[in-house]
Amino acid sequence: MHILIIEDEPELRRQITERLKRESWVAEGSGDGQEGLYLASEYSFDAAIVDLGLPGLSGLEIIRQLRAKESLLPILILTARDRWQDKVEGLEAGADDYLVKPFHSEELLARLRALVRRAAGTASRELRIGPLRLDLNAEQVWIEERPVELTAYEYRLLELLATSRGKILSKQALADRLYPHDEDRESNVIEVLVGRLRRKLDPEGQLSPIETLRSRGYRLALAEDAHEDGGG
After folding, report:
1. CATH for the 126-229 domain, from 1.10.10.10, 3.10.450.50, 3.40.630.30, 1.20.1250.20
2. Which of 6, 77, 153, 161 could form a disulfide with 98 if both were Cys (CB 3.0 to 4.6 A apart)?
3. Degrees to nearest 5, angle at CA 208 with 66 and 188
4. CA-based angle 203:206:211, to the nearest 5?
5. Nearest by Cα to 228 from 118, 116, 132
6. What residue spans define the domains of the chain?
7. How do 2-6 and 210-213 pair as beta strands?
8. pLDDT, tens digit, for every residue of 17-60?
9. Class of domain 2-121 (CATH, top level)
10. What is the pTM (predicted TM-score) of this model?
């Protein structure tokens, strides 16, 4: 899993990051509210841990702005405040759960797992983005109703791009999520996979389905009229 940590205490941020890494999760952190909002808005994460008291932009404002953008990112609040009003404000702003400092790392992990399971349970089984259709259960792909045969890694790459709702995914983020246990992977593996995926999705060179953003990464660049169908 890929977790965003927005926490301004460097030592706590480091401790959380190290604990998540021991679970083979990928963690990315920021100690500034504005930067944290940018990361949450532009990049794909499975869940976010957000402290309420942040410089630049409060945790509550980060949550409000993400929900105003219709972000479905699961959010766990971290707070040193024990007033029940603060917890209620966080939940009403759109957070999914909260944890009061100090806390046990095992409880943090359990709550994150529960949030991600809950989010996955409400996801639709079929995803449509313009001419692209993915069956997330059967791991099958169609372009303009033409079936596309993909390898396991090609499919996983496409699913990551498609479920990120047009956000930018860096090569490092993609590599971490495709090969979480392979520290010796070649740096050009993602480029090769993207090239193969482009050719299979767009053999005539008319759709340009995957956009490259120099020094930033990749994102799916198909039509914006994406919709999800829960019917399967």
Report:
1. 1.10.10.10
2. 77
3. 85
4. 90
5. 132
6. 2-121, 126-229
7. unpaired
8. 999 988 888 899 999 999 999 999 988 898 999 999 899 999 99
9. alpha beta
10. 0.61
